[in-house]
Specification:
heterodimer, A: alpha/beta, 5-stranded parallel β-sheet, 14% strand, B: 4-stranded mixed β-sheet
Chain lengths: 446, 177
C-alpha cells in the first residue's frame, strides 16, 4: 500500500523536510520535498502527488495560498497543513478551503502515522470507487446494446462519437427500437456519466403536469403544491435530460423548452428566482419532425436547436441477423429473473422469429420471449409457445392456401403432430389431413 | 578486526553485560561480528533547551562523521531523550540504506510511564530498537508483519507487541538466511 502512495513535503526548514523525508521513506512511501510553495507548484505541474504536507508559514507564498493554487490546478491530492502555532482561525480557514486536516508541529509520532494511514486509506477507497464505477459503466454498455449487424454497429459508432460532446441529440426510430437505451449509452459514455440521466416521458403527461415536472414548482404554486419541488432540468444538473416522445409536447411547452435550452436557466412554476442548470438534452421521437415542422405543428427554431445530431435507430426487421443474440439475451434476463435454468430456443421457433416483421420491434420480441418462458415447458422455447396466431390476419398472408397451410401447421404443432387429435380439432378426417400435409409439404419441427 | 562488522558506540553509562548481550543479539540477527566502543562526545551541543531534548538528526550526523571505515554499520546508543524537529520524540533513527543509526533507552524505561522498573523488559525493548534501526541501515523499510522487528512502533507498547527478530521476508531482502 505505502509503496503506491506519493507524498510531497513543502517546508522552508531543512530539518523538518529531512525529518519527514526519513520518516516516510522508512514507511515505504514515495517522497519528494520542496523548500517553498513556488517550487512545490512547479513540481506539481509535471507530477501528481497523493498527499501534500505543507507548512502554513513559509516565506513568499504561504501554505493556505499554495493550497488554493493546488485546487485551481484541479489536482485531487490530499493536502495536510502543518503549523507550528495552533491557531483555530488558520485551521478553520485551511479546512474551509478543502484541506484534509491540519496538524501542529511537533507531531506525536502516532498522530502522524494515523493521519497518513487515514489519508492513504481514503486514497485507496477513492481509487476503488473509481474502478467500480468504471466497471459498472462498462457492464451497463455491454449488457444493454445487443447486436452485431451492420445497422446497429453504425448506430454504436455514432453513439461513441456524439458521447464525447455535449451537443443536443435527437434519436428517431419506430416504437420499441430501443431509443432510450441509445440515450443511456450516450450518457454513460460521456463526461457526464457520474451525474444523473433524468428521463421524462413527455407523451404521458398533460401540459400543466409536464411543466411542473420539467421546471419544478414553488410551494403554493397551485392547489396541492404543498412543498417546493425540484424540476427535472434542475435534477439533471451536470448530467443529461432525456425527453422521450418530444413530438407530443404542446406549442406553449415548445416555447418554454426553447428558452431553457438557449439560456440554460429556468424559473420554477410559481417562483421568480432564476435557476441555472448545466444539462445535456437528448430527445427521442417516432414521428417525422421534419414533416411536423413543415405542417406547423413543431416549432422550426426548437427543431434546429435540438437537431444538432440525429441518430436513426433501425427497426428490427432491418437487423434480422441480431435476432438470435437478442433472443438469447432476453432468455437469460427472464430466466434469471424467474429463477429458472437458462433455456434454449427450438430452431424452428427461431426461424419463425427471423421471418416475422416485428411491427413492435425489440419491445415486441422481448414480450414474446417473456411470454414463451412463462407458458413454455422450461426446457426450450417451442414454436407453439410463440403468439403467432394473429399472423393469419397479418398482411404477409394473401392467399387462402397460405392461410390454410399456416392454420394446419399451427394445429399440428399444438397437438404435437398427433394426426387424430389434430384432424378432430380441424373437423376433417385423417386422410384429408394427410393429403393436406403432403400438399403443403408440412413437417414437424422436432 | 574483521572489515565486515558492526560497531555499537555507547554514550553515557551502560553496564558492560548489558552492552555485550545487545551485541550478541545483533550479531545473531545480522550474522556479522559486533564490536562495542565507548565514546565521550559532548552531548550538550545537541541539547535543545526549549524542548529539553536532544536533536536526533544532528546526533546521527555526528555519529556518521566519526571515522570508523572498517565497520559496515554503526549504531550510537544513548540514555537521553531524543527528538527530531517534526516529532515530539523518537526511540531511534537511522539512515535508510546508509551506515549509521542511533537508539536511546530513555523512553523505553517502565519508570517513564509510572510503572515498576523492569530491567529485562528494558533490555528486550532496547535490542528491538537497535535491531530495527540497523535494519533500516540495511535498506529495510517498515514491515507489515505484526511480529517482525521492522514493524513501525510509535508507542513503547507497540515495541512490546513485536518480536526481536526479522521476519523471513525481511531476512530474504537483506540476504541473512
Amino acid at each position: 500500500m505505502a509503496g503506491n502512495i506519493s507524498i510531497l513535503i513543502v517546508d522552508d526548514e531543512e530539518s523538518v523536510r529531512d525529518s519527514l523525508y526519513n520518516w516516510f521513506i522508512e514507511d515505504g512511501y514515495n517522497v519528494a520535498c520542496a523548500e517553498n510553495a513556488k517550487k512545490a507548484l512547479l513540481i506539481l505541474e509535471s507530477k501528481n502527488f497523493d498527499i501534500i504536507l505543507a507548512d502554513i508559514k513559509m516565506p513568499g507564498m504561504d501554505g493556505l495560498e499554495m493550497h488554493r493554487r493546488i485546487r485551481s490546478l484541479n489536482k485531487d491530492s490530499i493536502v495536510i497543513i502543518m503549523t507550528a502555532f495552533a491557531s483555530v482561525t488558520t485551521a478553520v480557514q485551511a479546512l474551509k478551503d478543502g484541506a484534509y486536516d491540519y496538524i501542529t508541529k511537533p507531531f506525536d509520532p502516532d498522530d502522524l502515522s494515523h493521519l497518513i494511514r487515514n489519508a492513504a486509506s481514503q486514497i485507496s477507497l477513492k481509487a476503488e470507487n473509481e474502478a467500480l464505477r468504471n466497471k459498472i459503466v462498462s457492464l451497463e454498455n455491454v449488457e444493454d446494446l445487443i447486436g452485431n449487424s451492420k445497422a446497429i454497429i453504425k448506430v454504436l459508432k455514432e453513439v461513441k462519437r456524439v458521447a464525447q460532446s455535449s451537443s443536443p441529440v435527437i434519436i428517431t426510430g419506430e416504437s420499441g427500437t430501443g431509443k432510450e437505451l441509445i440515450a443511456r449509452a450516450i450518457h454513460s459514455n460521456s463526461q457526464r456519466k457520474f451525474s444523473p440521466l433524468v428521463s421524462v416521458h413527455c407523451g404521458a403527461l398533460t401540459e400543466s403536469l409536464l411543466e411542473s415536472e420539467l421546471f419544478g414548482h414553488e410551494k403554493g404554486a397551485f392547489t396541492g403544491a404543498m412543498f417546493n419541488r425540484k424540476g427535472r432540468f434542475e435534477m439533471a444538473d451536470g448530467g443529461t435530460i432525456f425527453l422521450d416522445e418530444i413530438a407530443t409536447i404542446s406549442p406553449k411547452m415548445q416555447i418554454e423548452l426553447l428558452r431553457v435550452l438557449e439560456t440554460k436557466t429556468l424559473v420554477r412554476v410559481g417562483g421568480n428566482k432564476e435557476i441555472t442548470s448545466d444539462f445535456r438534452v437528448i430527445c427521442a421521437t417516432n414521428k417525422d419532425l421534419n414533416k411536423m415542422v413543415n405542417n406547423g405543428t413543431f416549432r422550426e427554431d426548437l427543431f434546429y436547436r435540438l437537431n444538432v445530431v440525429n441518430i436513426k435507430v433501425p427497426p428490427l426487421r432491418e437487423r434480422i441477423e441480431d435476432i438470435p443474440m437478442l433472443v438469447n439475451h432476453f432468455i437469460k434476463i427472464y430466466c434469471t429473473s424467474m429463477s429458472r435454468n437458462i433455456i434454449s430456443i427450438d430452431p424452428a421457433a427461431l426461424k419463425r422469429l427471423e421471418t416475422y416483421d416485428f411491427p413492435g420491434n425489440i419491445r415486441e420480441l422481448e414480450n414474446m420471449i417473456e411470454r414463451a418462458i412463462v407458458i413454455g415447458n422450461e426446457k426450450e422455447i417451442r414454436l407453439k409457445d410463440l403468439p403467432f396466431e394473429k399472423d393469419f390476419t397479418s398482411n404477409s398472408i394473401e392467399s387462402l392456401d397460405d392461410l390454410e397451410k399456416n392454420h394446419m401447421l399451427l394445429i399440428l404443432n399444438k397437438y404435437d403432430w398427433n394426426i387424430s387429435r389434430s384432424a378432430k380439432a380441424l373437423k376433417v378426417d385423417r386422410v384429408t389431413l394427410y393429403n393436406k400435409i403432403r400438399k403443403y409439404d408440412l413437417r414437424s419441427s422436432k | 578486526m574483521s572489515e565486515q562488522s558492526i560497531l555499537l558506540i555507547s554514550h553515557g553509562h551502560f553496564e558492560k553485560d548489558f552492552l555485550e548481550k545487545i551485541a550478541r543479539e545483533v550479531a545473531h540477527e545480522f550474522l556479522f561480528p559486533v564490536y562495542i566502543e565507548e565514546s565521550h562526545i559532548d552531548l550538550s551541543e545537541f541539547y535543545d533547551p526549549m524542548r529539553r531534548q536532544y536533536d536526533g538528526n544532528r546526533i546521527l550526523k555526528e555519529i556518521d562523521s566519526m571515522s570508523s571505515s572498517q565497520f559496515i554499520k554503526k549504531v550510537g546508543l544513548f540514555r537521553v531523550d531524543l527528538f527530531i524537529p517534526i516529532l515530539t520524540y523518537i526511540f531511534g533513527q537511522a539512515t535508510l540504506n546508509g551506515c549509521t543509526g542511533i537508539a536511546s533507552l530513555y523512553r523505553l524505561r517502565n519508570e517513564q510511564y509510572g510503572m515498576k522498573k523492569d530491567e529485562d523488559l528494558l533490555f528486550d525493548r532496547f535490542r528491538k530498537v537497535v535491531i530495527h534501526e540497523l535494519g533500516h541501515t540495511f535498506g529495510l523499510i517498515h514491515c507489515h508483519i505484526p511480529t517482525c522487528v521492522m514493524r513501525s512502533s510509535t508507542y513503547v507498547e507497540d515495541i512490546d507487541q513485536k518480536s526481536h527478530n526479522l521476519c523471513i521476508k525481511c531476512r530474504i531482502k537483506i540476504g541473512v538466511i
